[in-house]
């Protein structure tokens, strides 16, 4: 099982094989997954990035995810429409999304344009089972309630590490090159994505919404938890 999260330099992944936990880094998602598959087969891949871009309006998955994380709702951004994401700059994207969805595009969301479109292309090429996840939603499910502290705080990091260890995912202190390239919260997000991938592989995970939405791109759009 594999969990993937975006980081400043590219992508960080946590792979689970029994009780073993391994970390990987790659500048592009396709290269990253190719490197992982050289070390073994993957039953499921969970990615913290939207899969399925809306033509108009908001994705149900994003709306439901915001409800699921309580006070952490700002961590769930509303996915821009496909046309907005293909715009050349933030101002143009905001204007297009206002027309198609009734709201602009946050700078945070537009800054993820390259990674969003990487996933959009890669998902059509891979034969692996790939689902979308959101780390805060996954941590809320793992904890049984939304987490009260932000992931970038010491308390937030320690709470998330403890939850993962309780689920049998002990992230090593030494992660090699991956640990140099990714921030602490990126690693923990990838780890809980791997936890969700394991739930997908064992049939425990469920999509939000159920059934998933389908836009004109034909991709099943849901956040799995």
Cα Rg:
17 Å
Strand content: 15-25%
Helix-strand sequence? EEEHEHHHHHEHHHHEE
Strand order of the largest sheet: 3-2-1-4-5
Q: What is the terminal-to-terminal distance?
A: 14 Å
What does this entry show, briefly?
With 225 residues, the protein is an alpha/beta fold. It has helices at 29-37, 60-68, 82-85, 90-101, 107-111, 113-125, 135-143, 154-166, 177-181, 184-201; strands at residues 2-7, 10-17, 20-26, 45-47, 130-132, 207-214, 220-224. The strands form 2 sheets. The protein has a 5-stranded mixed sheet with strand order 3-2-1-4-5. Strands 6-7 form a two-stranded antiparallel sheet.
What does this structure look like?
By secondary structure, the chain is of the alpha/beta class. It is built from 10 helices and 7 strands. The protein has helices at residues 29-37, 60-68, 82-85, 90-101, 107-111, 113-125, 135-143, 154-166, 177-181, 184-201, and strands at residues 2-7, 10-17, 20-26, 45-47, 130-132, 207-214, 220-224. The strands form 2 sheets. Strands 3-2-1-4-5 form a 5-stranded mixed beta sheet. A two-stranded antiparallel sheet has the order 6-7. Strand 2 and strand 3 form a beta hairpin. The longest helix is centred in the C-terminal third of the chain and has 18 residues, at 184-201. The mean pLDDT is 96.
């Amino acid at each position: 099982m594999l969990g993937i999260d975006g980081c400043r330099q590219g992508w960080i992944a946590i792979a689970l094989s029994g009780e073993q936990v391994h970390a990987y880094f790659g500048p592009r998602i396709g290269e990253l997954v190719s490197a992982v598959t050289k070390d073994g087969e993957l039953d499921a891949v969970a990615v913290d990035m939207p899969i399925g871009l809306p033509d108009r309006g908001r994705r149900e998955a994003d709306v439901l995810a915001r409800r699921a994380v309580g006070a952490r709702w700002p961590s769930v951004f509303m996915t821009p429409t496909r046309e907005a994401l293909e715009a050349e700059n933030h101002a143009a994207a905001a204007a297009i999304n206002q027309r198609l969805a009734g709201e602009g595009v946050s700078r945070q969301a537009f800054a993820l344009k390259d990674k969003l479109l990487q996933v959009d292309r890669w998902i059509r090429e891979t034969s692996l089972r790939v689902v979308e996840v959101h780390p805060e939603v996954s941590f809320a499910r793992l904890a049984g309630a939304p987490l009260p502290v932000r992931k970038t705080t010491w308390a937030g990091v320690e709470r998330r590490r403890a939850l993962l260890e309780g689920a049998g995912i002990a992230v090593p202190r030494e992660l090699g090159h991956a640990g140099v390239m990714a921030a602490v919260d990126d690693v923990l997000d990838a780890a809980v994505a791997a936890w969700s991938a394991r739930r997908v592989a064992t049939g425990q995970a469920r999509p939000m919404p159920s059934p998933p939405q389908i836009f004109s791109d034909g991709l099943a759009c849901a956040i799995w938890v």
